[in-house]
Write a structure and sequence with these properties.
By secondary structure, the protein is an all-alpha fold. It has one domain. Helices cover 33% and strands 3% of the residues. It contains five helices and two strands; from the N terminus they run H-H-E-E-H-H-H. The protein has a two-stranded antiparallel ribbon with strand order 1-2. Helix 1 crosses helix 2. The longest helix is centred in the C-terminal third of the chain and has 16 residues. The relative contact order is 0.22. The structure holds iron/sulfur cluster (2 copies).
Length: 134
C-alpha cells in the first residue's frame, strides 16, 4: 500500500521562511519562547534601551516575550503585506535556530497550520497597527 502523501511537505530548508507569514511566531498552548540574558542584552542594544527596559516592556513570566490576543509575538509586524520580525537582526537564539536544520514542523503538520492560519487571516482584516509601536 502506498504511503499517503503529506500535502504540507514544503520546507526542507529555511528558504521557505522568506515566503511564510511566520507561523512559528504565534504561541501555541504549552509552547514557549525561551529568552536568555544574552538575547535580552542583544535586543536592548539593538533597540538602544536598557536590558531592564526590554524586560519591563516586552517580557512576561520572566523569560518570554509578551504575545497579543491572537498569540502572535509582540515583535511580529502586523502589516497586512509584511508579517516579519521587527527585531530580525537581534532576534533570540531560539528564533534563529528554529527549526534546527529539520523540516519546519508547522509546514509538515496539518494540525498546526489549521490552528494558526485562521489567526493570520483574521489579522489581515484587522486595522493595521503601527509597525513602529512595539
Ligand atoms: S520556521 Fe517554519 S513557520 Fe517559521 S518562518 Fe520558517 S517556514 Fe515559517
Ligand atoms: S522575536 Fe521575532 S522571530 Fe522570534 S517569535 Fe518574535 S517575531 Fe518571531
Amino acid at each position: 500500500m502506498s504511503k499517503k502523501r503529506n500535502p504540507y511537505v514544503l520546507s526542507g530548508n529555511k528558504s521557505f521562511c522568506n515566503f511564510c507569514p511566520g507561523y512559528c511566531c504565534y504561541r501555541l498552548p504549552g509552547s514557549s519562547l525561551l529568552l536568555t540574558n544574552d538575547d535580552i542584552n542583544r535586543i536592548a542594544r539593538y533597540l538602544q534601551v536598557s536590558d531592564g527596559e526590554v524586560r519591563g516592556k516586552y517580557i512576561e513570566h520572566r523569560n518570554t516575550f509578551r504575545t497579543r490576543e491572537d498569540g502572535s509575538c509582540i515583535f511580529l509586524a502586523q502589516g497586512k503585506m509584511c508579517k516579519r520580525c521587527l527585531i530580525h537582526e537581534a532576534r533570540p537564539k531560539q528564533c534563529r535556530e528554529f527549526p534546527y536544520d529539520r523540516p519546519c514542523p508547522y509546514l509538515e503538520n496539518e494540525g498546526l497550520m489549521e490552528i494558526i492560519q485562521p489567526r493570520i487571516e483574521e489579522s489581515l482584516w484587522a486595522p493595521v497597527a503601527q509597525v513602529s509601536s512595539y
